[in-house]
Design a protein that fits this description.
171 residues; alpha+beta
Length: 171
């Protein structure tokens, strides 16, 4: 007889909320990349570097409605390619010329909060790697839709910490 005892370490538990959010629009620049052989990680990192170097990030900061950067992983294909957008939320302001608009549909989301006193200590990639354990422990199931990352540009006025968020749609 074989048995398993699986425990979830609450010491490393995520700070999260389940929210139902109405549709909203984001706009930005995007690339198409692939999840094959982890190629997407280096391509996305290079895309961020290029976006800082060519002024895209500053254009986003200067025109967005809220002080956040938003990245979206969407339009996933069976060959493991997908689009990765870097932009922000645009409800009132017009996005910069040449930006692609994307509608985020009404959905229920698991929003994972990552906080730190120091901006450079927010390691969102590390948190993604822990998510499969979190789904197993909580019983939530991710929907086959877009994923979002939200990067707050300013410290939270309530607790004085920097915050990033991972938004995962739920079934």
């Amino acid at each position: 007889k074989l048995t398993f005892d699986i425990k979830y370490n609450s010491e490393n538990a995520f700070n999260y909320r389940i929210i139902k959010h109405k549709s909203f629009k984001i706009a930005g620049r995007h690339i198409t990349t692939t999840g094959c052989d982890g190629k997407c990680f280096s391509e996305i990192m290079n895309f961020w570097r290029q976006s800082y170097a060519d002024g895209t990030i500053e254009r986003i900061k200067g025109t967005c409605d809220k002080p956040v950067l938003v990245s979206a992983l969407y339009d996933k294909k069976s060959d493991m390619t997908f689009r990765y957008m870097l932009g922000s939320i645009y409800e009132k302001n017009m996005p910069p010329e040449g930006f692609t608009e994307l509608t985020v549909p009404d959905m229920t989301w698991a929003v994972i909060f990552i906080e730190s006193e120091e901006k450079n200590k927010l390691n969102i990639a590390k948190e993604w790697k822990r998510l499969s354990d979190w789904f197993y422990a909580t019983g939530y199931c991710p929907a086959d839709s877009m994923n979002l990352e939200v990067y707050h540009l300013n410290k939270d006025i309530n607790n004085g910490k920097y915050r990033n968020e991972i938004w995962i749609p739920l079934t």
